[in-house]
Amino acid sequence: MFASLAERLQETFKKLRGKGRLTESDVNEALREVRLALLEADVNFKVVKDFIARIKERAVGQELLASLNPAQHVIKIVHEELTTLMGGSNSRINLAPKPPTVVMMVGLNGAGKTTTSAKLANLMRKQGRRPLMVAADVYRPAAIKQLEVLGGQLNLPVFSMGDQLEPVAIGLAAVESAAGAGRDMVIIDTAGRQEVNEELMAELENMKETIKPHEILLVVDAMTGQAAVSVAETFNSRLGLDGVVLTKLDGDTRGGAALSVRSVTGKPIKFVGVGEKLDALEPFHPERMAERILGMGDMLTLIEKAQENFNADQMAKMQKKLRSMEFTLEDFLDQLNQVKKLGPIEQVLSMIPGLGGNKKLKDLKVDEKELVFAEAIIKSMTPAERSDPERVLNGSRKRRIAKGSGTTVQEINRLLKQFEQTKKMMKQFIDMEKSLKKGGKMLKNPFFS
Amino acid sequence: MGLFSRLKESIKGGSQQAAAASETTQEPELEKTGFFGRLKESLTKTRQSFVEKIDNLVHRHKAIDEDLYEELEEILVQADVGVNTAMELVEKTRRSVKERRVDDAGELKAILKEHIREMLGTDTASLNITDETPTVIMVVGVNGVGKTTTIGKLAHYYKSRGAKVLLGAADTFRAAAIDQLEIWAERVGVEIIKHREGADPAAVAFDSLQAAKARRADLLIVDTAGRLHTKANLMEELKKISRVLGREMAGAPHEVLLILDATTGQNAVNQARLFGEAVGITGIALTKLDGSSKGGVIIAVKQALDIPVKLIGIGESLEDLRPFSPGDFADALFDE
Predict the structure, then answer these.
(1) How far is it, in rounded angstroms, from Cα A265 to Cα A195?
(2) Residue B81 class from Cβ within 10 Å (0-12 exposed, 13-18 middle, 19+ buried)?
(3) How far apart are CA B183 and CA A219, in angstroms?
(4) Cβ contacts (< 8 Å) between B39 and chain A: which residues?
(5) Which reaction is the catalytic activity of this chain (chain A) (predicted)?
(6) B179 to chain A: which residues are within 8 Å by CB?
(7) B82 contacts A142? CB cut-off 8 A
């Protein structure tokens, strides 16, 4: 739906090409595109305004006007400033000098506090802590049960006293019990509330006064719109936040709320929620967030994932084969299986710059079931057919394979086509790598192209 | 491996250098406080309602000029209308001003409101209640938008009007989601069909519909697990639930209600589009309008997809679910 900022800026500057020198109004035109991109990403309007002013200072000054490729230059400045503004990666929880450390989770209804509490407890346990989760959401039906179920799944204790007591009392009792039970961290799940609800906001203030948490984390839905500013500001001014957790980042939101929240509170975004599973809580990467907000995809995450999942030996073998053009259907199958390990294919594709919002990608959807068919088809072939399908396969062989694999000739043809495309693509990758080696151009990416 | 690590290095290297460069050239801390300070100040200054802003605007500008239009666009963007829709609305207002030869800035508000109403459509859309019973409503949406709560309120609404309502607990994924719906069922005093957590949601939907028929219920409301619209496998699951309902009763689900959180930004458009592609949304319920957000994104959704908003959630109590009226909504944007 959104053209990436890079493309749009190229477009803007194309019009200006041949002018020799850029004027200030040209720069303004480019900044207008940046502004639109940020607004489309839900960055709060005021934040955008100040941000653009800041960029303009740099852009107009010296650098841009003399630059040979202004589009790239603008992107570089925007990206740098955005990354700086997002702050460093800080995913530390303030620890109490004397345990237990008390962490309080706050936020709007439905932001994901309960799930995040469990995810955080899980993460903290991995870091050697002994967390106790506390069910202090006495308002939402079954919120206590939800935390208990999650605790059961994680095999971590949950402190609850039903929904008849005041949250403050529950919190206090939990902290007291923690020390005796050998728990060095207490994570309090509070009820969701609208920041305009005076009574409930006062309740949180009271909790803070009485329980004195060492860390107050605001849980924010990454899909939040312009209201993110008012939410973050109110929670921060009333409670003094220590950090922010951004949830539901595994969707296709550009996540401009991250910038809004960070800007108005000045508090670090410490973690991001990236999935339904209880280990899907990751440290926040400002750089990646900046790229995402600008609609530039997330190459770093993709590469990291690929690195985790691809076996180095296999990769080396594959590359060798490709160089000598020995890439066969069997290798293709291996490869499909490896790609599968990267996660849902749509998610992988969405991380590639320029493809993020591409509508055509929907046709490209790789169904997990298709992989099963591919495997059946390839396994119904003889070794000769697998190594050189193009030459060996004829109509009658294809019919045999279709019968053997329970598919149709059309499906076999489709697979062969995909195979050819992959071969071509892999070859491009290899060529690219060669040029990398020569110290030539970097990855073809809107950033560097 | 070589390929990947080098790719990564090259990407990282580039931006790290950039970061290092900006660190040496400026005092980041000072810079930050300055920026944040300024921002905070400007935010507190402008934390007014939509209408105050427009009134202000109109007051400050006696004449209608470019600055005025620009600020108008900004105000709309701040209501989450979306930048494209905001531009379009301003464009329409501009045209009307020209056509009608308006030169008093004071009339601007009325013109803008008129165009917002026009975009939202004038008809009040109600739920598709069928003659043949049970009417089946399937409730869908991303995580945390308020599906279960809305179902509780919806059940109450129809029960208090004399309908026999049955709930189907087909959110078998989220921890304690079934318990949550059960508590609502108890509060409202309606029956609920449930399986165990982790059960096949389509099977729950099937059983619910069977039960609704057998018990002669007027209305069956099926809860589903929250899911991000980008997760293909989960959207397939949703399609299956819908398919199973349709197989058991022609035309079911008669209403596929997408729940949208009013606090959501432009992503709401993607949500509506993808849920719509998967299961054919017939209506939208906009929740959490009691917060600070005005839910302007609904205008963007309407503009992009033309799905009617049927209900709004305006508070925590059982009565806080109302039919949506485009006129009132447009008024509310300006009221207060």
Answers:
(1) 15
(2) buried
(3) 26
(4) 46-47, 50, 263-264
(5) GTP + H2O = GDP + phosphate + H(+)
(6) 141-142, 145-146
(7) no
pLDDT in tens, B120-136: 886 778 888 888 999 99
Instruction: Output the average pLDDT for chain B.
Output: 83
What's the CA angle centered on A385, arms A382 and A388, to 5 degrees?
A: 150
* Confidence at residue B30, expressed as pLDDT on a 0 to 100 scale: 36
CA distance B188 to A293: 43
CATH architecture of the domain covering B126-324: 3-Layer(aba) Sandwich (3.40)
- The pLDDT tens digits for B27-43 are 333 333 444 444 344 33
The C-alpha of B118 sits at a distance from chain A's nearest C-alpha, in angstroms, of 23
Please tell me which residue of chain A has the smallest CA distance to B26. Answer: A84
Contacts of A253 in chain B (CB under 8 A): 265, 267, 270
The pLDDT of residue A23 is: 72
Q: What's the token pair of residue B290? A: 């009691």
Beta carbons of B147 and B141 less than 8 angstroms apart: yes
The low-confidence residues of chain A, meaning pLDDT below 70, are 1-7, 9-10, 13-22, 61-72, 89, 296-319, 321-325, 339-369, 426-449
Q: What pLDDT does A366 receive? A: 55
Contact B18 A80 (CB under 8 A): yes
Token pair recorded at residue A174: 């939990």
Q: Scanning every residue of chain A, which has its alpha carbon at the shortest distance from the alpha carbon of B297?
A: A225
B36 contacts on A by Cβ (under 8 Å):
263-264, 266
Within 275-294 of B, beta carbons closer than 8 Å to A belong to 288, 290-293
pLDDT in tens, B84-96: 899 999 999 999 9
What's the sign of the alpha-carbon dihedral A316, A319, A325, A329?
positive
Q: What structural domains and CATH numbers belong to chain A?
A: 3-85 (1.20.120.140), 101-290 (3.40.50.300), 299-448 (1.10.260.30)
Among chain B residues, CA nearest to A254:
B267
Q: Is the peptide bond before A100 cis (omega within 30 degrees of 0)?
A: yes
Phi, psi of A44 (to 5 degrees): -60, 140
CA distance B131 to chain A (A): 33
Q: Hey, is the C-beta of B19 within 8 angstroms of any chain A C-beta?
A: yes
